[in-house]
Fold this sequence. Notes:
Layout: E1 16-18, E2 28-33, E3 37-42, H1 44-49, E4 68-73, E5 76-82, E6 88-93, H2 96-131, H3 136-159, H4 171-190, H5 197-208, H6 216-233
Parallel strand pairs: 1-2
Antiparallel strand pairs: 2-3, 3-6, 4-5, 5-6
Amino acid sequence: MADANRMTLSLRGIGSIKNKHGELRDDEVAYEKLPEYDRYTGTATALISAGIVEEHMLPGQPDRAIASVTVAGPEGFIVIARESDRLFTVQVSISAEEIASRAEREKRLKTDKAAQELQAALAREAKELSALPRSRERYRDDCVRTLKAHLRIVRDTAIVANKHSGFHFDSRTVRAFDDAAMQLLKTVLHGEIVFDAAVQERRIVEIRSPGSKANLPLQNFLQDITSRNDNKQQPAAEDEGA
């Protein structure tokens, strides 16, 4: 005769086990791996078929509470609760070793994610720094390129023709626009450039600042690594009886 307060988990043949709790068929069980226990959700039939519970354990069975039941399990307790008219949830305790393993796995995942965010942040920082012109020639080239691009957009979408409205300017206006555009380009090509080194230096400091949005992942990553190293180096508590 089986022990009414203990059970052995063995997932047997059922329709399927889902990793997310969605609409469940009568033969499906939803499984969630949580930090300190496993949780299963399904109908009584599905949970019993999967070997997760036995019928006499369910709430509402003889000598059982209506809403929730707690019984001893292989690694602690099994809590069975009625979630709805047709569904039950089962929380199964896991071993201390498994709890520690899951916690370590979660730390690794967070560290890996932090490292990826760090790489992305460093790439963004490098991109922002490279976008800053460091010479008058580079600044002039950037201005000319930007001006040409905007003038081309205005000319093609408004001056020469507008595909959506059917309106456009006459040839005399187009020539006048082209002449004005050429004059603008000459002004930028030959104009005198003034450089304020303090303004650029403030921008560089801002980009590289630990408090900037781009460097926030770096701070989180370093804080996580420091915290883990501190925990490893912390000496074990001495036995008072020693």
